[in-house]
Amino acid sequence: GIDIADQIYGGCKISLASLRKNFDRMKIDYDSIWLKIEDIALKTLVCCQNEISYNPCCFELFGFDIIIDD
User: Fold this and answer.
1) How far is the C-alpha of 51 from the C-alpha of 34, rounded, in Å?
2) CA angle in degrees (0–180, nearest 5) for 2-20-9
3) What is the pLDDT of residues 32-58, one digit of tens each?
């Protein structure tokens, strides 16, 4: 069977549209949180930019796990 959390939240990976709906339902300011997430990602990449080798024939994909609490 499907776990109740999967039915409510879509499992551990949900779309940004679903995240926005959940935030709206919980009265959480999605845009404010998203700006903070963008800031974290940008600052992280700036800190390690000299360690990322340049290769014009390919691209790098970086993932970020963000924990949101009170």
Assistant:
1) 26
2) 10
3) 999 999 999 999 999 998 888 888 898
How far apart, in Å, do the first and last CA atoms of the chain sit?
32
Measure the CA–CA gap between 40 and 65, rounded to whole angstroms: 11
Q: What is the pTM of this model?
A: 0.70
Instruction: Count the residues in the chain.
Output: 70
- CB within 8 A of 14, min separation 6: which ones? 22
Structure tokens at 42: 């940008």
Amino acid at 55: N
Supply 58's token pair.
């390919």
Q: What is the DSSP string of 31-43?
A: HHHHHHHHHHHHH
Task: Look up tokens 């974290």; give the residue.
Answer: 40
